[in-house]
Amino acid sequence: MFSLLEITRKLLKGDFTGLLGIVKTNKEIHPAEVAKMLSGVPYKTSLKGFRMLPTESQLKVFPYLDILLQIKIIRVITKDRASFILNKLSSDDRMTFYTAVKGLERSHFLDLLEPKNRDAVLDLLGYPENTVARLINTEFATITTEKTIAQAIEHLRRNHKDNETANVIYVVDQEGKLIDDVPIRKLVLNEPDKKVADLLDGFCVTLHMRDTKEDAVVKFKEYDRVVLPVTNEENILMGVLTVDDVLDVAEQKDTRDIQKFGGVEGLDYPYVKTSFFSLVKKRATWLIILFVGEMLTATAMGYFDAEIAKAVVLALFVPLIISSGGNSGSQAATLIIRAMSLKELTLKDWWFVMRREILSGLTLGFILGVIGFVRITLWQELHFFDYGQHWFLLAVTIFFSLIGIVMWGTLSGSMIPILLKRVNLDPAASSAPLVATLVDVTGLVIYFTIAAFILKGTLL
Amino acid sequence: MFSLLEITRKLLKGDFTGLLGIVKTNKEIHPAEVAKMLSGVPYKTSLKGFRMLPTESQLKVFPYLDILLQIKIIRVITKDRASFILNKLSSDDRMTFYTAVKGLERSHFLDLLEPKNRDAVLDLLGYPENTVARLINTEFATITTEKTIAQAIEHLRRNHKDNETANVIYVVDQEGKLIDDVPIRKLVLNEPDKKVADLLDGFCVTLHMRDTKEDAVVKFKEYDRVVLPVTNEENILMGVLTVDDVLDVAEQKDTRDIQKFGGVEGLDYPYVKTSFFSLVKKRATWLIILFVGEMLTATAMGYFDAEIAKAVVLALFVPLIISSGGNSGSQAATLIIRAMSLKELTLKDWWFVMRREILSGLTLGFILGVIGFVRITLWQELHFFDYGQHWFLLAVTIFFSLIGIVMWGTLSGSMIPILLKRVNLDPAASSAPLVATLVDVTGLVIYFTIAAFILKGTLL
Q1: End-to-end CA distance of chain A, in Å?
Q2: B113 to chain A, minimum CA–CA distance in Å?
Q3: Res A86: pLDDT
Q4: With CB atoms counted within 10 Å of each terminal CB, which end of chain B scores lower, N or C?
Q5: Which of A28, A244, A270 lies at the smallest CB-CB distance from B202?
Q6: Start-end of CATH 1.10.357.20 domains in chain A
Q7: What are the pLDDT digits (tens) for A155-194?
């Protein structure tokens, strides 16, 4: 038995014997484990470690490495070795690699491919980055309907490699148009003299080359499938897509949604691998936009500076009041953005959402209003703080302001994502900070207007 | 050809002929399509529609219905029919159903099962709700090593139903302990007289009954697998798990994370299916906690009311200052929470994160500080607003306050999730509103302290 931790420790000390030992002598290690060890050490060490692996192991481990490490490796190893590895990759792993490298470096690396592979990669790179075409595996097994099961099995044995795409066999006509997919288990579970035609179930769920990755996730879930065929406009079978390749897609999409909602431009790489400069840049953009927007609060408060001077006590509650609007807006935005992202809500539901959120906002505002009212009354009566002779009117002001602002916050938070979607922008861009900023400015106006109305002739 | 939209429209009018027509005459419809139509109409209509389906279709469509609809159906159909359906479900779909019903209703529905199925469900219900055990399919194909491929195929043909778990055959010893898994394709791609023992690759990735669903997602991704065997403590094979069942898990986990981050208790059901009362309750809890916390801002400002009375102009910038802290905190919290959720960051990285975030905070604070300084100078010089004779000192106060508060916000936002994790709480609970609230209170203290220092003897 070997210990991954032990080997990683050795690696960190520059000792590669442990790594080479298990790779050479122990066949019971999964390439993913080796990849994990190489990812757990500094780049220089992992590069050195990878170069020391026997060729066979390099080929197996490479696809499991993270894409940044893959690129660094291809940059530093010899041209011949790089060409060998890139040509031997499965077609989907190869596409992942070429999708990640850009510009001049991409064409440089394309020169390393055999003509057949290069043409295939170039074809698929012609599809937009977010499409299924970029993820498909183009090695798949096909058969025609008139064959018997015995013939099909013989055909497979002669023509197909043992890889994960060989779990399903695709039934096509003479032109390569897809008719149906048949799991290999059906070849085994049925009598050998049956025809392939007898195994068809009549419906075939397919993806299209231009479907987005998100469409694919939805389809996998809807039909409880783990692999789906991908066709072009003429229904010609172009490749297959396995669900593990979109497992990351759903996660990456959620990551972008979450980061946007937190008011950060989506990161291209994991936090730990993003450079300090790019991290600050991604944050500064939104922070500056929000800051400039929030400057309107200073302007708004400037309009009311006479009121504040007369009743300083009003200023004390400004943060409490506006943050309540921001918080309730952030709650509403979260719920709506996520529901839209999961396609539980669509644009046409806006009226349902609006009625519901106005009612929620009123209820929540009333609850906070009561708490606010009680707080002022208690502090006054228990002599914690003196809000002056008109404390009761102040408490009433706070009560009504909270109802108004929480309702306004809830309504803005729920409607902004819907409006953004309506004009074809990403609803997730209506981040918590954005909603809070918008609500802050209007919240101040609501607060001081209600105050002016209630306190006129007394405090103001 | 039929149109789903057309049939749904008919359904909405109470006309079930379209639905029954396609189910009876057209075998080219996937049960998932029927389920989708039934989910798109009001409950009453979908219940009625389901009851009118032929038994065969009911069995096929049921697993694709959403769980709430499944429960409603079982409640209203006859006991015999309910018992028939529940017993015919695949074991994983049955577990999903029983996991969703609680309390008395669960035991009531358990009585509908045959003893063998009931015992199996009760066994698995003994495992915690978040474990793999709750998702496994207990129907799987096993074989022993000494058999030939031809024998294995014969064995499968006799003993196993044609369902998705039959894509992989599990090699076990006499006691049922798992040795390896062999994809069925290997039986087809190899010569029939080879032994099963010759097909083993020496490593077998397994899940354990008590692994969490999140563990399973990680393993599926790490090893690029779509189905994994699940064993108990004695390495006895208990069931298999397919990746489509955890596709939802990753999504649900992300949904909970996102909702928590937005300051809402995670919803149990989709937004549109959550009742108004439960929606308000889930939001009110956090909103009240945050409101009570935010009351400290009124207290903090109370301490400085003499300063505000002397320099009303200070109050004008309160919302701008504190929201900048909240926004930068929300950004930092988002990045750290997501990185921890994806296991890119662990607790031991706190020092790396802290150094990085202090530096980011200083940089971002400096940028905003400069903008704030320029804003005041411009407004003053262009006579947009008169900040009084000491406007320059005010601008300096704003400059330094922004640096201090943005740094403080960034630091809090990044450290609170790590601290929560340290005390075994969910980092996602450090929501944008929570971070903003904490930063608001301390931000005010920072602002007025810097103001007191710089403006002493002039404005104050």
Answers
A1: 81
A2: 25
A3: 94
A4: N
A5: A28
A6: 271-455
A7: 888 877 777 677 888 999 888 899 998 888 888 888 888 8
